[in-house]
Specification:
The protein is an all-alpha fold and 80 residues long. It has one domain. It has 3 helices and no strands. Helix 1 crosses helix 3. The longest helix is centred in the first third of the chain and has 41 residues. It is globular. The N and C termini lie far apart (43 Å).
């Protein structure tokens, strides 16, 4: 049990720090995925690049046989 103002502040700081760490990890993962598929998106999906993530994902799936191994791994690792 956390008691007093100092204890609550410490707990709040720990929770906020954990959430920030998770957000940074997610941003890092997304950046890595974008690097892995960026060239493939530019090459095969350029006409739909501004149409949103789901349209780009659909385009990558349609061109799966042509995309890089790194991008194929990203799709597979994300259950696509």
């Amino acid at each position: 049990m956390v008691s007093g103002k100092l204890g609550r502040r410490t707990l709040t700081s720990l929770i906020a720090g954990a959430m920030a760490t998770q957000a940074v990890a997610q941003d890092s993962t997304r950046a890595s995925q974008e690097r892995s598929c960026g060239r493939d998106v530019s090459r095969f999906c350029k006409p739909v690049m501004d149409a949103g993530d789901m349209v780009i994902l659909s385009c990558l799936q349609q061109n799966r046989a042509k995309i890089s191994q790194a991008c194929q791994k990203v799709l597979k690792d994300n259950g696509v």
